[in-house]
Automatic annotation (TrEMBL):
Pathway: One-carbon metabolism; tetrahydrofolate interconversion. Residues 290-308 are annotated as: Disordered. GO terms for cellular component: cytosol. This is Methylenetetrahydrofolate reductase. It catalyses: (6S)-5-methyl-5,6,7,8-tetrahydrofolate + NAD(+) = (6R)-5,10-methylene-5,6,7,8-tetrahydrofolate + NADH + H(+). The keyword Secreted does not apply. GO terms for molecular function: FAD binding; methylenetetrahydrofolate reductase (NADH) activity. It comes from Kineococcus rhizosphaerae.
Length: 308
């Protein structure tokens, strides 16, 4: 199962894709899939967009990965704008297509992550409910989001941790941490989980900041917590695309090395639908599976556990 494989960590990285909006991107994305599959990622996740089209794209791409590649697909799923019954149907559709693991998320209000969250009247208020639904429908595992700096709606880190533990108690078997620029932030979250007696595998995300556009993406994902050291390293290179890219990759490799040295087993690599940055990280960090065997066969749903 995915959870067992996260624990044994014979595979050292996972990779993330997003549904493509045009044919050129879809073609580039599939070339990336074909180049990255032989490196033996533990799973390949597909994000779930706010718009209706994106949702279908997630199910289709995850299903295609299951059908046409040896990769283990993980479909992100959010509770945005859908009643529980419709979410159940999405899970059933994923299972019918051979997608057996989901990342269960609440999501953000369409188009504006900072707008107040309003659940669908017959939908879910929080991600723990989606975890339960997915497991009831028979997924092998449900992962959840974790926030090293705390989710922006959480009043403090303690409350944020309590809610993360609630998702594990609901049955989540693993968690992916939101991107941070500082490895220390991730390590502190891992410490908080361990201190709470929670043994759920926690995977950090790694996204090389290879262009000013990617810097914008990460600014959004990290609520603007951009450290001054990163600014000092990248700002002078804004007019030199090649040098900017090299420095962005160098930073990600340094972060990856630090995480591995701290005992992190699996790194979640954002592909932005292209292969080359992921390939570089896999090579520089020695993450390729030795013989890239096929993922282990499916088992029964496996959940994490928390003492508290
Ligand atoms: P929740 O766990 O529901 O948390 C939301 C807020 O409610 C938090 O402040 C939390 O502390 C609080 N809370 C949680 N449970 C309870 C409870 N039982 N009672 C009271 N308060 C509670 N978004 C997308 O749209 N598509 C994606 O594909 C996507 N992928 C992501 C991948 C990762 C790794 C991460 C970290 C985030 C991703 N997101 C994605 C963004 C995510 O949907 C947002 O960050 C969203 O605001 C929170 O989602 P959540 O699942 O953490 O929600």
């Amino acid at each position: 199962s995915l959870v067992a494989d996260l624990r044994t960590a014979r595979r050292r990285f996972s990779v993330e894709f997003s549904p493509a909006h045009d044919e050129a991107t879809a073609a580039r994305q599939w070339r990336a899939v074909e180049r990255l599959a032989p490196l033996g990622p533990l799973f390949a996740s597909v994000t779930y967009g706010a718009g209706g089209g994106d949702r279908d794209g997630t199910v289709e791409l995850a299903g295609r990965l299951a059908r046409e590649t040896p990769l283990r697909p993980v479909a992100h799923l959010t509770a945005v704008g859908q009643p529980a019954v419709a979410l159940g149907r999405v899970v059933d559709d994923l299972l019918a297509r051979g997608v057996r693991d989901v990342l269960a998320l609440r999501g953000d209000p369409d188009g504006d992550p900072r707008a107040p969250w309003t659940p669908h009247p017959e939908g879910f208020q929080h991600a723990d409910q989606l975890v339960r639904l997915a497991l009831e429908h028979g997924v092998d595992s449900a992962g959840v989001a974790a926030f090293p700096l705390g989710h922006h709606e959480s009043p403090d880190l303690e409350t944020d941790l309590r809610h993360l533990l609630g998702k594990v108690r609901a049955g989540a078997g693993w968690a992916v941490a939101q991107l941070t620029y500082d490895v220390e932030d991730f390590l502190r979250l891992r410490d908080r989980l361990v201190a709470a007696g929670c043994d759920v595998p926690l995977v950090p995300g790694l996204l090389p900041v290879t262009s000013p556009r990617v810097l914008e993406v990460t600014r959004r994902l990290t609520d603007g917590h951009e450290p001054s050291w990163l600014h000092r390293r990248l700002a002078p290179l804004l007019d030199d695309r090649g040098a900017f890219r090299e420095e962005g990759v160098r930073v990600a490799v340094e972060d990856g090395r630090r995480l591995l040295a701290e005992g992190v087993e699996v790194l979640h690599l954002y592909s932005l639908n292209a292969a080359s940055n992921v390939e570089t990280l896999v090579r520089e960090l020695g993450l390729a599976a030795p013989s890239a065997p096929a993922p282990t066969s499916q088992g029964t749903a496996e959940e994490g556990s928390c003492r508290t």
